[in-house]
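Work Package 4 report. The design task specified in the project plan requires that, given a folded chain encoded as structure tokens, an amino acid be chosen for each position. We show below one input record used in the internal validation round.
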């Protein structure tokens, strides 16, 4: 099989670093390569139209790789190059991962755990609020919207609300032990009842839908066995939830009971209500959700009930949606759930790539213009431009050092921009995250794209770099 020949396009500042990486990566990843250095200082400023006018593709090239920052229509380059053109990573230090650690395979993303998302204290919601909440939960990944009733009373509007959700296309479950509420909800289209035990199981055959069997006392399975036997006798479809208890109130023992129920009922459908851990533990919920769904995947528990009320669990449904894909792949492929789902790594970065002090020093010595570049590495912030390299761990002190140089290009808007970027760089330094100027910090699935403000992409400039930046006449 012929070896791939990749033609890399870069700028002058990145040439040495790129060649150093490719000298080791090319033989390891199994591709031949050439490097074309265009007459531009910073490769990130290149556009597809600009590259198309300057690219020279060697004979035998099978693909062209350009910076991930490149804007514009790549077909412009392909028309000249005659081979496919791809955007690579935005940071050339990410090239090893780019070539060796791509997506696992096309099967990644499959799942078999259903997410039931509860609207807690549903009677307190107006119809409009309930619809909005249902849409939010469904968009995040929930298949069933669970209408959570309040204990101690009968909600007279439950049939109307369930019917409203059904009319808008939502699948609905009802969370109540009150047989009057349950009958009204199932009559209006609820397809699953949470929950059934010895108190209300005699009504279950009349509801005509699936139910969730729970123990009367979570610490004993005897009455749960009786409830299951009753449901089987009356041909009522069911799932079993032995009840997950909070830490300090029987958490470990409750996991044992889930395993015991699976041993007793190897073919039964099971459910786990995970809110007792995510809502009742002082910790960000993403990691907790991954662990619990991993337990469910291994044990064959095919549905989870979650809520997202407390602040640290307010995106729990989305986390469960990502987690169920991760654990399904890991369990079915018998591989570690590592380097597969970077969107679940939020506080830290999955693979932070930071410049070395030597690279920053080399860049500082190469820059000929007065534009400021900022970096964060080893807990220190760096600000460099032509004949200037300032560093400090404190962004305020770093800015003071800059002002002490009496810069001539410091307008109020420029100062605001630098302050904003230094704040991001300080957050990155504090958390050990990767900082790239003019880009949002990577918060996994919580990341919000950030528009570039340093580069003027409209108005006076239309995305083309200036003659001064490129060095072209």
């Amino acid at each position: 099989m012929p070896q791939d020949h990749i033609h890399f396009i870069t700028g002058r500042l990145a040439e040495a670093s790129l060649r150093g990486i490719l000298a080791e990566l090319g033989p390891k990843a199994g591709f031949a390569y050439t490097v074309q250095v265009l007459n531009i200082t910073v490769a990130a400023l290149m556009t597809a139209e600009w590259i198309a006018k300057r690219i020279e593709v060697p004979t035998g090239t099978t693909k062209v790789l350009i910076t991930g920052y490149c804007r514009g229509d790549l077909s412009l380059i392909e028309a000249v190059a005659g081979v496919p053109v791809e955007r690579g990573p935005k940071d050339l230090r990410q090239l090893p991962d780019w070539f060796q650690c791509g997506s696992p395979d096309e099967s990644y993303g499959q799942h078999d755990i259903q997410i039931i998302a509860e609207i807690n204290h549903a009677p307190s919601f107006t119809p409009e609020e309930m619809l909005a909440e249902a849409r939010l939960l469904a968009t995040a990944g929930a298949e069933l919207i669970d209408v959570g009733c309040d204990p101690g009373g009968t909600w007279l509007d439950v049939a109307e609300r369930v019917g409203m959700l059904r009319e808008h296309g939502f699948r609905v479950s009802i969370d109540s032990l009150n047989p009057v509420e349950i009958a009204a909800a199932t009559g209006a289209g609820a397809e699953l009842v949470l929950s059934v035990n010895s108190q209300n199981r005699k009504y279950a055959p009349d509801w005509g839908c699936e139910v969730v069997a729970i123990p009367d006392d979570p610490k004993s399975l005897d009455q749960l066995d009786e409830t299951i036997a009753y449901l089987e006798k009356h041909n009522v479809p069911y799932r079993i939830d032995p009840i997950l208890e909070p830490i300090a109130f029987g958490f470990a023992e409750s996991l044992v009971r889930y395993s015991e129920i699976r041993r007793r009922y190897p073919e039964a459908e099971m459910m786990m209500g995970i809110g007792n851990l995510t809502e009742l533990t002082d910790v960000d919920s993403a990691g907790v959700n991954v662990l619990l769904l991993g337990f469910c995947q291994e044990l064959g528990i095919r549905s989870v009930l979650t809520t997202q009320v407390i602040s640290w669990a307010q995106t729990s449904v989305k986390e469960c949606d990502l987690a169920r894909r991760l654990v399904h792949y890991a369990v079915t492929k018998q591989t570690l759930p590592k380097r597969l789902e970077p969107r679940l790594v939020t506080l830290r970065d999955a693979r932070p790539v930071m410049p070395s002090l030597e690279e920053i020093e080399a860049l500082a010595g190469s820059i000929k213009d007065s534009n400021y570049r900022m970096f964060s590495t080893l807990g220190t912030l760096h600000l460099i431009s032509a004949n200037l390299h300032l560093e400090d761990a404190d962004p305020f002190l770093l800015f003071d050092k800059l002002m002490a140089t009496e810069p001539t290009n410091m307008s109020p808007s420029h100062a605001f921009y630098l302050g904003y970027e230094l704040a991001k760089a300080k957050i990155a330094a504090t958390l050990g995250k990767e900082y790239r100027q003019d880009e949002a910090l990577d918060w996994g699935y919580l990341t919000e794209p950030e528009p570039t403000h340093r580069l003027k992409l409209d108005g006076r400039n239309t995305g083309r770099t200036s003659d001064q930046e490129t060095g072209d006449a």
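The radius of gyration is 29 Å. Validation will be extended to a larger panel in the next phase.
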